Amino acid sequence: MKKYSILVLAVMALSAAACSDKTAKDSSVPEEVTMSKERLMDKIKGGWAGQVIGCTYGGPTEFRYSTIINDNIPIIWPEHRIKWYYDNIPGLYDDIYMDLTFVEVFEKEGLDAPIESFAKAFSTAEYPLWHANQAARNNIRNGIMPPESGYWKNNPHADDIDFQIEADYAGLMAPGMPNAATHYTDEIGHMMNYGDGWYGGVYVAAMYSLAFVSDDINYIVTEALKTIPVESKYYQCMADVIRWHDQYPDNWEITWALTERKWGFDIGCSEGVFGTTNIDALINSAYIIMGLLYGEGDFYKTIDVSTRCGKDSDCNPASSGGILGVVLGYEGIPDYWKKGMEEVEDRPFAFTDVSIGKTYQMSFNQALKVIEKNGGEVGDNEVVIKCQTPEAVRLEQGFEGHWPVARNDIRKPVQDCGEFEFDGKGVVFTYLMPMDKSGYVGEVEVYLDGVLDQTVKLPSDNNSRRLDLYFKYDLPLGHHKVAMKVVNPDKAHPVEVRSMIVYSDKPAPVLHE
How much is the CA Rg of the chain, to the nearest whole Å? Predict the structure, then answer.
C-alpha cells in the first residue's frame, strides 16, 4: 500500500480523471481464425482451471473485507490447497457447480434446449444458493418462471453478482464469437437477474469468447464492452475503470478508490443497502477487469488484484483467472498455480456428479457445435472460427426511479410489530426464521394500505427459503402503511421482522440544523 490514504488519492485524482481523452486502441476482431483442436481444448481447460484456481486463491478472503485487502495481509497458496477446499468447504465452488448445471443441460438436450429444462435443473438441484439465485429458485418453485423469476420487481437481488459468476459456460462454448456467447446468456441469465445483473454475465461471457482469439488484455476488456449498451450504468462504470487504468497504469489503488467513490453504493440487495456487503454485479465486475488490466497478463498479479479489491473476493479472481486462463491456455498457466489440479480433476464437485475433467470435454463438444452453427468449420484436427464483431444487447435497467432512503432496524416478532408506516414508493422487509427439515411453511398475510396484498410463504427448508419477507416497488409516491399477520404460527418457527428498507424517487436530503 502507498503512504497516502486511499481517500486522499481519490480526491487528488478526481480532477485529473476528467482531463483524460485517452481511449482504447482502435482494433478489430479478425474475420477468421484457424486453430488446432488440441489448442482449442487447451484454452477451454485453461478457462475452467483458471476459474478453480482463482476461486480457491480468494477463498479465505471472501466477504471478510469491504475495502482493499492490504498487501501486508498474506494470502497463502500451500500444497493441496484446492483439495482442502474440496474436502472441507466444497460450497466455495458455487460459481462453478452452478455453471455445470447449464453445461449439463446443453450436453443432454443440445444447443436449443428450452429454458424450462434449465429452470427445472436449477430449481431442483441440491446445492445451496444465495442472493439472486435463491430468490429465483424460490420464485420458480412457486410458479414464477423465467424471465419473470429474475425481473427486479419479483427479485430484489436482480442486480446481484449471481449470473456474472455463472456465465463462464457461455464464453467457453463460443470461442471468438461474442455475439453467440451473449445469445446463450439471455434466457439463462434472466432466470435470476435483470439489467446490471444480467450485463455482468454478458460482459464476462464476451471476454471469455474474445480471449480465444486475442492475447491483448486491454483489447479483450474494451472490445467485449461493446456488448453492453452505452446508456447503461454498467457500461459507464466499466468505461470509467478502463479510463482510470489508462491514467493510472501503475496504481490500481487509485482506480479502486475512484470506482468505489462513484459506483460503490448498493441499491437493490437487501443485505447490501446501507451496509458493507456489496454483492452488486456492477462493482464486482469492476474488480474483475481491474485484475485483468493491472495484472498485465501475469496470472498471479491478475488474481491477486481482483482478490485484494475485496467484496466478493473469491468469485472476482475466479472470473479474471478464468478469462486469463483462456488467453494462456492450460499449459500456459504457471505450474505453481496448477499444483493440486490433478488431485481433483476426476472428483465431482459437491452436489453434482460432474468433475472438472468431464467439464473440459463437455465444453469442448459444445464449442465445436457452436463453431459449426455460426458458419465455422470443424475438421479432423483443426477448426476454422468465423469470428464476430461484438454487438450490444438490449438496454434494460432495474430499480429505475428507486433510491433507498432509510433502513430501519425492527428486530421484533411479527405479532409484536403493529403497523409500519413509511413515505416513499417502495419497501423491502427482511426477516429471520429458524431453518430446518421439518417441512414447516409459514404463511404471512401482508396488508398494504389496508388491503390484503399477498400471502407470503416461508419454507423452513434452507434450499427452498424465501430471502425477503415482503417487497413492493413502483408504489404511488407518498405515505403508505404495511401490516402483517402470521396465519399458521408455530413455536419452533417464530418469524421475526429484522429490518425495513424504504425507497423513494431520489436520495434523501441530509439536513443539519
Answer: 23
